[in-house]
Amino acid sequence: MILTVTPNPSLDRTYEVPSLDRGEVIRATGDRMDPGGKGVNVSRAVAAAGAETLAVLPLGGAPGALVAQLLDEQGIKVAPVPVAGQTRSNIAVAEPDGTLTKINATGPELTSVEAELLLTAVRERSTGADWIACCGSLPRGLAPSWYADLVARAHAAGARIALDTSGPALLAALAERPDVVKPNAEELAEAVGRPLVTVGDAVKAAEELRELGARAVLASLGADGQLLVDDSGAHFASAPVDAVRSNVGAGDSSLAGFLIAGGTGATALASAVAHGAAAVQLPGSAMPTPSDLAPDAVTVTSEVPMDRVLTEPVS
Question: Global pTM?
Answer without folding.
Answer: 0.92
